[in-house]
Amino acid sequence: MSNITNDEVDVVVVGLGWTGSLMSIELAQAGLKVRALERGEDRNNADFTYPKPADQYAYGVRNKIMVTPKDGALTVRHSMRDTALPTRQWGAFVPGTGVGGSGLHWTGVLIRPTPTDIKLKTYADQAYTRGQLEEGMQIGDYPFTWEEIEPYLDKFDKICGLSGNTGNLQGRIIEGGDPFEGPRSSPFPLPALKDTLNNTMFADAARKLGYHPFPNPSANVSQAWKNPYGNQIAPCNYCGYCSKYPCLNYSKASPQTAVLDSLKRMENFSYRTNANVLRVDLHADGKTAKGVTYADAQGNEVFQPAKIVVLAGFQFVNVRLMLLSGIGKPYDPLTGKGTIGRNYAFLSVGGNTLFFKDKQFNPFATAGATGQMFNDISPGNFDGPSLGVIGGAKIHSSQATGTPIGTALPAGTPEWGQGWKESMNDWYGHSMKISISTGCMSYREHYVDLDPTYKDPWGQPLLRITFDWRQNELKLQQYLRGIVRDITKELGPDSFSESFLSMDSHWDITKYVSTHNVGGAIMGDSPETSALNRYLQSWDVHNVFVPGGNAFPQNFQANPTALIGALTLFSAQAIKEQYLKNPGPLVQA
Amino acid sequence: MLLSKQTSRRKFLLSSLIALPALGVTMKGLSAAVAAEMIAPSLEAYTPTFFSPAEWTFIMSACDRLIPGEGRGPGALETNVPIFIDQQLASDLGSEIYLEGPFDVNAPATLGYQLPFLPQQIYRKSIAAIEAWCQDTHRQRFALLDPAAQDDVLKKVQAGEVNFTAYGEDILTSKPFFSELLNHTRQGYLADPIYGGNKGMKAWIAIGFPGARASYLEWVAQHNVQYPLGPVSLSGDRG
Ligand SMILES: Cc1cc2nc3c(=O)[nH]c(=O)nc-3n(C[C@H](O)[C@H](O)[C@H](O)COP(=O)(O)OP(=O)(O)OC[C@H]3O[C@@H](n4cnc5c(N)ncnc54)[C@H](O)[C@@H]3O)c2cc1C
Ligand code: SF4
Questions:
Q1: Which of A258, A359, B181, B200 has the largest count of CB atoms under 10 Å?
Q2: SS3 label, residue A577
Q3: Does the residue A587 lie in any domain?
Q4: Chain B within 8 Å of A339 (Cβ-Cβ)?
């Protein structure tokens, strides 16, 4: 092991997933010398040709292309009074690794938050009476307007070849889309994916009950698409191995299909794999970074000097690197002071499984994003104030895959023996789901910091999550249970099973929810309560930019990546147009 | 197709029984299902890599109860599930687990896996404890109990009622072993045959899953119509 110093670059990007790829190409296009450092392996489309990804055991069960808990564990506890324990195996979420990050094997549901979601604090102050919301809740507004962020949402939609129905074109509501979406400057780039049987059944029932269903907006593209970077994405063939799998068909918008082909051809861009960034190195005054230090595959410590540092390692990696590097002040939940680690949030899911003896759902013939959903239960669009809850849910029937390990069987089926075996024969392919996916508010006592006990293989402390379900989120689950039950009744299955959080539930890290972890280094208007300004720039170290879900002040009901992509592009634009001319804080504190 | 295999089933059964006395095992314990569904000569010929011969008789019999041959659909033995488990345990299974201490083995279940063991250790320790328990309780090894008694043992293992402390385990209980065994048994049954189980893609054929076809552009919009083609596997076999 030795110490090495690389040649200096203009920009070092930590992590080459969605945000790292977008930041890299945008800044390389401005002529900057950009180098990305990725902890995992290099991965190209050619590594995932047919039939390799069609392997549930390797990808779906063993998480072949995710980071191992051994290398990437966190610790978790339910409250500040508990001792946190490591995530020795993955459960509730599964972080990615390697070129493409989670973007290589995400599902591709690409949906925007609503204008109310990004101004949730303002909405809450208007719609709820003082003291009505749960104590300790500390939600915030995003520090930009809908009009400011929409062009970047639009750009990311086009980078991904977003497929679906337009619901609101420049203020005009269009039948078949989401009437609750914020005004779009341009229509969806591509038409919706084809519907499966569960989609049409769900949408018909939902419509009958007065809801406004529309096809899940999808980054599994419905038709051939050439994106603004000049990359070609091929039409999806509904292979059924999508969520958690790399695409075998060039059809899922990913860093690989949508960005890297063009990026890798640029001479001012380079990248290193097996480069695990350990910390950001600051100048003596602590006001700027001079580069980052990483461990290479041989165990060398390598210093990478850079003028600008972009942390793009996924939500909790970014927060951890800030804490390890002394960027900003760690959050203290007792005093409410400090910002790094503040406002960690997750999301909750639930729903019903409906069994129909005489229906063939062919669940294997599907794209990852296949489904229909409605947004009627989002903030401002239902009567949250009279229920005393804030937040919302997407209610959907999706059919992400039909892989057989883990097939849901009717209630009362034995877990093993002849009964289980025959139930598999009878019910595989004969069920559909109605699901909810909820937002999650942020609270004073939900945060992340460095664990005092557990370390990673490089000897650095793990990140510790302190999080549990609160009454607000649990009440919302109970309310949604009623809606899902009504739709279920309308569909009249032979039987159904329910899965919702009860009022005394604790966060269960063993069951997969979604890898939509947010907060911890949030954006805002004030350095007192946020880690980053509206351009994802650290308030404390002005040449450090931190794109990712970490910037969300709380979680909304939509999947996060549409906004993550837009924030990244918004930040890249500010770096190009403002920061390069005049390096320093882009917003005065 | 199943009938034509009857002879090889019987042949396998017989040769297994010839092999068993060497381990002090007699014919009595094999279930009717074993007799009916053991059609896989490769299972007979298979020499386990991870399991000892004695452990192997436990795994074979336990898998045979978890997914028995009786009733509709193939059983775990007919589909070589024990081979899948053996090969997984002999591979890097468990190398991904974060195994740094300290360990709080009394943590709430919502915080997930907190044992200081690799799956390989869990299997070894648990099989030894269960066999010792069977000896003490039934004066018989597990494989030689009749199917109803085997089911009863497995139910107790599942419920954590087989007390491992009596056999020198102060941390490990029978519950986590059962859930690993059940998960692996189901996985071996339903995973691609490349991993050793799901022999002949029989489990996929039974449930109607087309395996690695992975191309359904023409099918996705054909609602409520049974998909007509059988499965293909990663290695290109057709069922
Ligand atoms: C199975 C799955 C399905 C999903 N489906 C959806 C969906 O349908 N819709 C949606 O909106 N979102 C979805 N997501 C979430 C989506 O993938 C993420 O929001 C998105 O990838 C975040 O981008 P990112 O750049 O922050 O992180 P990533 O894309 O994960 O990239 C981070 C990269 O940084 C690297 N890295 C981490 N630490 C270091 C370090 N110390 N040094 C060097 N490199 C490092 C990682 O290896 C990784 O390559 C899904 C996620 C998963 C896992
Ligand atoms: S469903 Fe479509 S987008 Fe998803 S992996 Fe298969 S071909 Fe690719």
A1: A258
A2: helix
A3: no
A4: no
Q: Which two tokens stand for residue A508?
A: 């269960």
- Asked if B98 reaches chain A (Cβ–Cβ under 8 Å), the answer is yes
ipTM, 2 decimals? 0.96
Give chain A's domain count.
Answer: 1
Q: Which of A106, A239, A399, A403, when mutated, tests ligand 2's pocket best, judged by the most ligand atoms within 8 Å of its CB?
A: A239
Q: Do B209 and A364 touch (CB under 8 A)?
A: yes
Domain, as residue range, for A429: 3-579
- B228 near A CB under 8 A: no
- Record the pTM: 0.95
Contact A291, A299 (CB under 8 A): no
Catalogue the active-site residues of A: 516
Looking at the 3D structure of chain B, how many domains does it have? Answer: 1
Cα–Cα nearest to A415, from B93, B129, B182, B229: B182
Residue owning tokens 């564990």: A73
Q: Which residues are within 8 A (CB) of A327 and not within 5 positions of it... i.e. 6 or more apart?
A: A280, A282, A289, A321, A340, A538, A540, A541, A544
**Which string of b and e fits A9-43 if b means at least 16 CB within 10 Å?**
bbbbbbbbbbbbbbbbbbbbbbebbbbbbbbbeeb
Residue A476 near residue A377, CB atoms below 8 Å: no
In A, which residues are within 8 Å of B204 by CB distance? 404
Expressed in angstroms and rounded, the spacing between residue B110 Cα and the centre of ligand 1 is: 24
Residue A12 forms part of a structural domain: yes
Partners of residue A306 on adjacent β-strands: A9
As given in the structure block, the two tokens for residue A324 are: 């390890």
Q: Would an 8 Å CB–CB cutoff place B148 in contact with chain A? A: no
- Give the closest ligand to the alpha carbon of residue A37: 1
Contact B211 A54 (CB under 8 A): yes
Q: Per-residue pLDDT for chain A (589 aa), expressed as one digit of tens each?
A: 679 999 999 999 999 999 999 999 999 999 999 999 999 999 988 899 999 999 999 999 999 999 999 999 999 999 999 999 999 999 999 999 999 999 999 999 999 999 999 999 999 999 999 999 999 999 999 999 999 999 999 999 999 999 999 999 999 999 999 999 999 999 999 999 999 999 999 999 999 999 999 999 999 999 999 999 999 999 999 999 999 999 999 999 999 999 999 999 999 999 999 999 999 999 999 999 999 999 999 999 999 999 999 999 999 999 999 999 999 999 999 999 999 999 999 999 999 999 999 999 999 999 999 999 999 999 999 999 999 999 999 999 999 999 999 999 999 999 999 999 999 999 999 999 999 999 999 999 999 999 999 999 999 999 999 999 999 999 999 999 999 999 999 999 999 999 999 999 999 999 999 999 999 999 999 999 999 999 999 999 999 999 999 999 999 999 999 999 999 999 999 999 999 999 999 999 8
Q: What angle do CA A486, A488, A493 make, to 5 degrees?
A: 145
Q: Name the residue range of residue B146's domain.
A: 48-207
* For B221, nearest residue in chain A (alpha carbons): A196
Let me know if residue A65 belongs to a domain: yes
Rg of chain B in Å (alpha carbons)? 19
Specify if B159 maps to a domain: yes
Which CATH number is A480's domain given? 3.50.50.60
B96, B107, B154: residue with CB nearest A69:
B96
A252 lines ligand 2 (CB under 6 A): yes
> Is residue B121, in this structure, part of any structural domain at all?
yes
Subunit contact A61:B191, Cβ cutoff 8 A: yes
Residue B213 near chain A (CB below 8 Å): yes
Residue B8 lies in a domain: no
Between A and B, how many CB-CB pairs are < 8 A? 183
- Residues of chain B found within 8 Å of residue A203, distances taken between Cβ atoms: none
Measure A561 CA to ligand 1 centroid, in angstroms.
Answer: 9
Residue B25 lies in a domain: no
